[in-house]
Amino acid sequence: MNISALLTSAGINIAVCLILISLYSILRKQPSNVTVYFGRRIASGRSRRTDPFCFERFVPSPSWIVRAWVTTEEDLLAIGGMDAVVFLRSLICSRISICWFCDFSPFFCFVSLCLLPYSIRIFAIAAIIGCFVVLPVNYYGQKRQYQEFPLESLEVFTILNVQEGSKWLWTHCLTLYILTCSACVLLYFEYRSIAKMRLAHITESPPNPSHFTVLVRAIPWSAEDTYSNSVKKFFMKYHESSYLFHQMVHRAGTIQKLMSDAEKMYMVLKAASVERNCTPGLMQCGPCTDHTNSFKVLSSELETVKEERADFVDMDLVGRKKECAAAFVFFKTRYAAVVAAQVLQSANPMLWVTDSAPEPHDVYWSNLWIPYGQLWIRKIATLMAAIAFMLVFLIPVTFVQGLTQLEQLQQTFPFLKGILKKKFVSQLATGYLPSVILILFLYTVPPTMMLFSVVEGSISRSGRKKSACCKILYFTIWNVFFVNVFTGSVIRQLRVFSSVKDIPAQLANAVPAQASFFLTYVLSSGWASLACEVMQLFPLLCNLIKRVILRIKSDSPDAALSFPYHTEIPRLLLFGFLGFTCSILVPLILPFLLVYFVLAYFVYRNQILNVYVSKYESGGLFWPIVHNTTIFSLVFMQIIALGVFGLRRSPVSSGFTIPLVICTLLFNEYCRQRFHPIFKNHAAEVLIDMDRRDEESGKMEEIYQQLHSAYYQFTLTPHDLFKSGSSSNHEGGDSVRDPENVKPGEEHSQVNGSIKIV
Amino acid sequence: MNISALLTSAGINIAVCLILISLYSILRKQPSNVTVYFGRRIASGRSRRTDPFCFERFVPSPSWIVRAWVTTEEDLLAIGGMDAVVFLRSLICSRISICWFCDFSPFFCFVSLCLLPYSIRIFAIAAIIGCFVVLPVNYYGQKRQYQEFPLESLEVFTILNVQEGSKWLWTHCLTLYILTCSACVLLYFEYRSIAKMRLAHITESPPNPSHFTVLVRAIPWSAEDTYSNSVKKFFMKYHESSYLFHQMVHRAGTIQKLMSDAEKMYMVLKAASVERNCTPGLMQCGPCTDHTNSFKVLSSELETVKEERADFVDMDLVGRKKECAAAFVFFKTRYAAVVAAQVLQSANPMLWVTDSAPEPHDVYWSNLWIPYGQLWIRKIATLMAAIAFMLVFLIPVTFVQGLTQLEQLQQTFPFLKGILKKKFVSQLATGYLPSVILILFLYTVPPTMMLFSVVEGSISRSGRKKSACCKILYFTIWNVFFVNVFTGSVIRQLRVFSSVKDIPAQLANAVPAQASFFLTYVLSSGWASLACEVMQLFPLLCNLIKRVILRIKSDSPDAALSFPYHTEIPRLLLFGFLGFTCSILVPLILPFLLVYFVLAYFVYRNQILNVYVSKYESGGLFWPIVHNTTIFSLVFMQIIALGVFGLRRSPVSSGFTIPLVICTLLFNEYCRQRFHPIFKNHAAEVLIDMDRRDEESGKMEEIYQQLHSAYYQFTLTPHDLFKSGSSSNHEGGDSVRDPENVKPGEEHSQVNGSIKIV
């Protein structure tokens, strides 16, 4: 691949982006698409719906970018909520002022808010150094015949072009130092400010029911008592002074529902068939060798039928059967709840397992019935499944990599020879097709990983997203980076990883060789995906089908989407990883990445302003993932640099790199010591202060009242309401509530309409 | 090495053992050695000192073995305390009865108590299968000329002798299954019973001050307040209802003492010199350009001198300076203490760090002054140092391995040729010398690792021993096993580990090739070290020097030793590891190992009965190390077996081994989930029950009284007592108390004599 191919690729991408963005700027002005592009505004009841039909509506305009940029803080505060303000300020202003804003913000976009500006800053530094220091050194690294610029291979811009033992390698080493130091300094301040924000979020936000609540699982089964009574007894005994009340969790998984339905059906059928068999059985007069015996069998059978029916009718027993071994327990103070959640409760660690409860909207009800004893094996099983999935995924990736080596393709499919000889087609095939195919395959990953996270048994939606986020992150880094580097270039198998010592050197060779792939990946996956994100292709299509084919005209959105952290954070982190890894090897990639991050900043800003609704908060739990990945990227960059300096025979540079690796790891350890506990647990000091404040202001009673209706597992359909009105049967309210599909405005009415199950 | 060489080696070792043991049985009867061999009895005031001079004293007898075996439980209970009983019962009787005994036992030897019988059981099974199934299969594995038995090479007993693709390999696979299953079943019951014992130990033992106490570190420095006041304010504010009182920790490290001495000296000298300078300065009449200024300087200097002196004299300020940022905080209930220890206290995780306090005798006072912020870096530094030490240690090991290859030695030192040609010498050199040299080098390891653990900053003696135990364990497994396997045989460098995939196959080749080394290692290091252990060579030598050269005749022991867990557990685990690893490769090793474990059982039983004193208890914290190492050994055995089956081309056996590996790992994970939390934290349920019991019986007041004198950092020498009598200066009592050097009888008087620092 040479410069002209790169430019072709860049051109196509820029064109695609421009077209999509123009299209977006037109589409967003159409009143029919308002549900797609202004879901958030509709949800908060702030959208203008009266657009006159005019010519302007069909002219593309950059007004949304301008608006995203121009809107003042006060306007943003009024229109888009505090989150947008926080998002903005994290870029422009100093950190301290953010904390002030946090005090009364809904505190959404906690992580992406800092991730993007952080990426922009660090890659601005990297791009400047890369383009003005490393790139010239690489380009003039060897005495050779300089070709016309557009025909220059991309290789001459990589470190492969630097002579062995060149004295100029110190520039690479220096770049390494500057990059690492600035990345670490920025990272430290980010971590510190996010930790502060998290604390401010906890203390300043309105009273959160989850702070008073503990989720208890693995309640031991006892023959005499219901689960509910066991919970009451246990907490009255050991947490008498602080225990308030509790609320059982009922079985509600889909499988569970199917099973209980099947069970009921079976019992009804069995009862009916036994009845049918019984009557003639008792009245039969045929030859009967052992009459008494057959009578006994029948009568005992009758008894069981009676018992079963009694079971079936007795609502208490049915209620008991549906309760599962989990409950939300409410405490009088936040401190008592956090103590109950963190201290080991029982001498058998597999019983009375306590956890901090997730926020009410964050609870993933379908997973709460899972027996605690299954969780560890589920975790291992999903881990294995995820790894297997990663390995199966190698097949498309290998195929994609085949495309970059056209000769092989021509050998395999001889009929393609004619087409591939045309210059434009071959440039397209090498420069653009591989990454498009890869992206299409990658689209299957998030749903799969989300499924794994569900099976794993997360109790909260944010936990599920976090788990999926980690899995997708490992997956993308493995499949996009490692597999491409190693299958495409030197070695075709996993054999590379069997030789630990040579990995740095092999990476140092393989990464620059794959420069063209990474460049096109950034262009296609990065830029184009942003354009797709802003276009909201899938909702747009749905909307179109609904309007044109189904002719539904309702304006209310089916489901206001929540921000897809689990796909966006891994993507941003992957690009960060690519950026760091390639920073000294292929500095040409850095400007493209910087453009990507800036574009991403505008796009996500717009999306958060207009499209996504924040339904639950993770409270910044994503940040440690970001931090760890960044540190990993830095160390990986340094290890590759070690390989490079080894290959280029520059022992001095190697010698200087080793302390850098150690310092980076020490820095990481320090951050882990200093900040990570805040993200794992709540501090006693903070909670006690909050409790005191609320007690003094007399708010506690009000909070206790709220607690009663905070966690509601079932919602009522009108049909259920009728049923529950006519009989006191609780089974009707089985439709599990899914906050992902509920508008914020709807919530309150549902709270009042829900059956309280206490 | 052939069978005759092995027999030579075994013969030498048996002879050495017999001589040493006979010597022991004579020496132990000499009244002059009573302090060496009956330290424990003297300490508990139960030794008989009047032995008449008779002939019997100089005749070796196996009486101690008989006695160790014969003594009834009741006698053991009366003589040796409950620990010996527990030790015995863990072998003979069922598990449940142990728990009953635990109820009123001092609960010492918690781990070795179960480790040894466990090892005996599992290796009895292994030895039987190994000798009667695997050994014949190996021996008759290949058609070849059978030599005279004593001249058979050891190799024909290893798996190397089995033909490729042999059908008999299923016996090895079956052995693997039987061994793994029996090991896991035994391990599970051990873990369960030990967990029960730990709980019983906590609940049934007399009130333990450490349960009421929390160690607070990283108390923030404030300009207005002393540390003591800060602690009081903080805990009065946040733990008002349960806070009792606290006790500051004072600086007492050796370096600290030297530094403060130097500081004092400096201040005295400075004061003196300033005084000397001052007087003439004020009275000088020479040419003085700026008189006022110089006067100012002098006067301000005088003021600082005055201030310094005031500081020096003001005892409050001196007291404040000596306090360090750590304190023991006492709570009203056990539950409150455990809550304070487990919950994150401050929003800054580097401040107000709480930990469960160690037992009073277990506190390692010299490490408490270490600033908390240093700990993480100390841990990393010691880890690095330990790894460096492990690598440096390669040098002697490589040399030792050179000895097993005599040709090389002859080439290097040609003058040895004559001697080495003699058969006996060569057998001695190959069979015995290498492991003796290795053992001698290994003796330097425990003190070094102990030093690392001290530098690491453990707050308790048991924690220090546990940390040293882990380090020594990794060290021995690495240096005895891996380095010997790989340096001695195929590959001379660490290069092996650069190729991950081939490791199983290489191990499968290398381990049987080193069979002779492992056999002699078990003989020399195992058997002989037990004989040395029972002989107590070093104390015996000290005693001899004291009596013969220094002519001291006092009978009281300098220091009754505590059981050296940190050296004995790694040794036992290493032999277990060797046993598992070699079980199917070199089954010849198993009988020797079994003999070792049985002998160890008697020896340690005798030592615990007579020699060692238990001063502090870890409460079974060593067991998870044992468990994990055993699981590691099992998995390692299976991986090597995979390599073997791969080399011998038996895909069926390989296929059957893989599920075994997975099941073993799942079993480990289950045990970790089920039992490990009990070893990390105390359960709320248990502690609250204990608190209630004590409250109801009215014992609490008594316990609070005990708490006041429980933790005492300084002891008084008579000199100090005089000083503290004449002035109220607390500095005198600087000699830090070391429970390792204190007799149990002494303790009480010291408690009363100590200065209470509250």
Please tally the helical runs of chain A, counting DSSP H or I stretches of 4 or more residues. 33
Biggest sheet: strand arrangement of chain A = 2-3-1-4
What form of chain A results from the Cα inertia axes?
globular
Strand content of chain A: under 5%
Q: How many separate domains of chain A?
A: 3
Describe the sheet with the most strands of chain A: 4 strands, antiparallel
Mean pLDDT of chain A: 73
Using only C-alpha atoms, the radius of gyration of chain A works out to: 31 Å
- Catalogue the unreliable spans of chain A: 76-111, 278-320, 488-493, 716-758
Estimated structural class of chain A: mainly alpha
Bin the helical content of chain A: 55-70%
Quaternary structure classification: homodimer
Number of DSSP-assigned strands of chain A = 4
Largest interface: A-B, 42 and 42 residues
C-alpha end-to-end distance of chain A: 67 Å
Protein name (chains A, B): Putative membrane protein
Domain CSC1/OSCA1-like 7TM region (chains A, B): 378-645
Pfam family, one (chains A, B): RSN1_TM
Keywords (chains A, B): Calcium, Ion channel, Ion transport, Membrane, Transmembrane, Transmembrane helix, Transport
